[in-house]
Amino acid sequence: MSESANVTSIDAIRVFAAAVLQFQTEARLCLTTIDTQLRYALNWLEHDRPMFWKREIEACMREISQARVRLHQCRMRRLGDFRPSCIEEQKDLEQAKKDMEFAQKQVPNVKRWYSEVLHEANEYRGRSAQLVQAVERDIPQLLAILRFTINQLEAYADTIVSDGPQDGNRLAKLAEEIQTLIDAGNLPVDAQPSGLNGNNDQISEEPTEVPPPSP
Q1: pTM of the predicted model as reported, rounded to 2 decimal places
Q2: Hey, CA dihedral for 49, 55, 61, 64, is it positive or negative?
């Protein structure tokens, strides 16, 4: 035999529903932000960085070529028995070669970084799948249940006010009906989460007391 439901304020359900809705909004924002950042990082490593280092290698090749020309020209400048040291030109050529070596090393580095980030991104998506499911499926179902519950309790409260005290079994029966719908996941069409109070997801803050059933 079912016990009577002890519901004293519909407003308490609305407050809970508002908190659930806020959590859904914030969780969805976090998931979207992280997903956007992951996509940006992967795109940056897969497309932007390879092109950047390709251009850098080409620039280093030009710099090496120019440094060699300057060094050759310096060595060709002779005044009698005087031969210039060409130290600066030699340093420029050595630095250009070091820059070239560094740029060439970044090509395999970027490929490795891309693979590592892609692996971590897939790991994250796998681990966050349950949260995504909760945000996109479970929470909307919960909000639909809460809205349906609020509507049914408001209808019950209106009946109590208009028809006078009713037997407590009526409220217990209402609770059984709501629990049956929750267990079956079979909510009426008008209970879908287009708004917990039928008003664009706005939660009414006006308290509505549920009259207690007569003993």
Answers
A1: 0.64
A2: negative
Count Cβ atoms within 10 A of the Cβ of residue 153 and give its class: 0-12 exposed, 13-18 middle, 19 or more buried: buried
Question: In 3-state terms, what secondary structure has residue 188?
Answer: coil
User: Cα–Cα distance between 156 and 7 in angstroms, integer?
Assistant: 11
User: Cβ(195)–Cβ(147) under 8 Å?
Assistant: yes
Q: List all residues 6 or more positions away from 61 whose beta carbon is below 8 Å from its beta carbon.
A: 100
Residue whose C-alpha is closest to residue 184's, from 129, 145, 158: 145
Token representation of residue 88? 């600066």
The amino acid present at 190, given as its one-letter code, is D
Going from the C-alpha of 36 to that of each of 82, 88, 121, 125, the distances in angstroms are 65, 48, 11, 12
- Considering the chain, what percentage of its residues have pLDDT values greater than 90? 53
| pLDDT at position 79 | 74
